[in-house]
Amino acid sequence: MKKLLLLTISFSLATISAFAVSEERGIGGVESLRGTTELETTRPADPMKKVPRDQVDIESSYVFQPPLIPHHIRHYELSLNANKCLSCHGWKNAKEMGATKISVTHFTNRNDEVLADVSPRRYFCLQCHVTQADAKPLVSNTFERVKSLQN
Question: Which is it for strands 28-32 and 15-22: parallel, antiparallel or unpaired?
Fold first, then answer.
């Protein structure tokens, strides 16, 4: 029978737990929502989630929820030098492209000063916005929508 030593490692911003170390072989295993994997083993990637071809308008669940992305974004460049999202959703091209304009809130900095271009803290769209996908929840959830947003 393997003897496991459970460790809890704490950092100032995050806590990593459920880290098991086998004293016999010296190989650790990490347990996450995706299952247990030995540290020396490369687990195959999960299959890609399906993004619907037709735009589906999923209603917001709470006030100020970032809108979901209703199309695939594979091969979109989003780096310090380029932001593919802005080619359609920027104010200059949105009407012509038939896309939603980015919010005016994306043009203010931390001091509430209005900028001429998108604020650096709002430049990386995928920090808040995610694509709609046909995916089951990773964990059970009892969240209920805000009553004023319910039909």
Answer: antiparallel
